[in-house]
Design goal:
The protein is of the alpha/beta class. About 40% of the residues lie in helices and about 20% in strands.
């Protein structure tokens, strides 16, 4: 039976990037829909649910994407609520690449550090990728400093990560001032920068002299890069005694995880592949 992937994108035009990955993931047919909202998705989900018998539903799956991660999360919630009993299909949510990118960043760090017990800074940790990286690090036993320019915003997101991750050691730190940034990075072994494109978050003269820092991951590929002194192509590149990863250096693993997650959808009809599940898929590849 043919494998069908139904792409539900919250943007007006379904992502070409996600469509190419689907084709490269050996999907037989790709149905793409743009501008999908929780109010309009039910009929599309019913079309996936009711056209094949339950034993064959593992050959149909849904991918949720788009540039707005919050909209993708709302869509995922509505899709899952539409299912009932065994009449369901597997779903993958990776709006704006947030889950696959966070998984790849944490897996890169894991090659050089024991995450359990390490001190990590996610800079900032309030965006979609940063929040997911903080969640994965905390679940692995790391002590996470979740940063934002303001302490209040950092605390709101840190609280949500703690709520979602039992036993999480996540504290909020402000980095709006240079003195606050210096305090935030003191004593950490890992820094992951997941900020907006073209914004420098960490100057070279700060991180290069930190004696405890072992791994630096910058997920911004647009100059100026998020961490000054790291290059986009860096992949375990040693700089000033630290292992450095740039956005393109992490990108190869991100793409492997994305393709593997799409393939995973067709192993059964009952999977919901979100942050933790996608990280586990990545772990099986590394």
């Amino acid at each position: 039976m043919k494998r069908i992937l139904i792409q539900l994108d919250t943007d007006d035009h379904p992502s070409v990037f996600d469509r190419v990955v689907a084709v490269d993931s050996e999907v037989d047919h790709l149905f793409s829909y743009g501008g999908v909202t929780p109010d309009t998705v039910t009929g599309l989900v019913h079309g996936a649910m009711f056209t094949r018998g339950v034993p064959d539903l593992q050959n149909t799956a849904i991918f949720i994407g788009g540039s707005d991660v919050a909209a993708g999360e709302a869509l995922l919630k509505k899709v899952c609520k539409t299912f009932f009993g065994p009449v369901r299909v597997s779903v993958l949510m990776d709006s704006n690449g947030s889950n696959t990118t966070a998984a790849a960043a944490v897996l890169a760090a894991r090659k050089h550090l024991t995450l359990a017990g390490c001190e990590a800074l996610v800079l900032p940790g309030t965006g979609p990728v940063g929040q997911r990286a903080a969640q994965l690090l905390a679940a692995a036993g790391a002590t996470v400093r979740l940063a934002s320019r303001t302490a209040d915003k950092a605390e709101r997101v840190a609280a949500s990560v703690r709520e979602a991750t039992p036993g999480a050691k996540v504290s909020a730190v402000a980095t709006g001032l240079l003195s606050e940034l210096q305090a935030a990075v003191a004593g950490v072994q890992l820094v992951i920068a997941a900020g907006a494109a073209g914004v420098e978050l960490l100057p070279a003269d700060i991180w290069t002299t930190l004696p405890d820092l072992k791994v630096v991951v910058d997920l911004n590929a647009v100059p100026p890069l998020g961490i000054n002194g790291v290059e986009a192509m860096d992949k375990a590149k040693e700089r000033n005694g630290k292992f450095c990863y740039g956005a393109l250096g992490v990108g190869g693993m991100k793409m492997k995880i994305h393709r593997a997650a799409v393939r995973k959808l067709f192993e059964s009809n009952s999977q919901v592949l979100d942050t933790t599940a996608i990280y586990q898929i990545g772990g099986s590849l590394s």
